Amino acid sequence: MKQKIAVVTGGNSGLGYATAKKLCDHGIKTYIIGRTKEKTEEACAEIGVNALPVIFDLNNLEGIPAIIAQIAKEGNIDILVNNAGINAKKELIDVTDEEFDAIIHTNIKSVFSITREVVKIMKNHGGGNIVNISSMASQYGIPKVIAYTASKGAIEAMTRAMAVELAQYGIRVNCVAPGFIKTKMSAKALDNDPERKNKVLSRTPMGILGDPSDIGDAVYYFASAESKFVTGTILPVDGGNSIGF
Question: Any transmembrane segments, and where (predicted)?
Answer without folding.
Answer: none
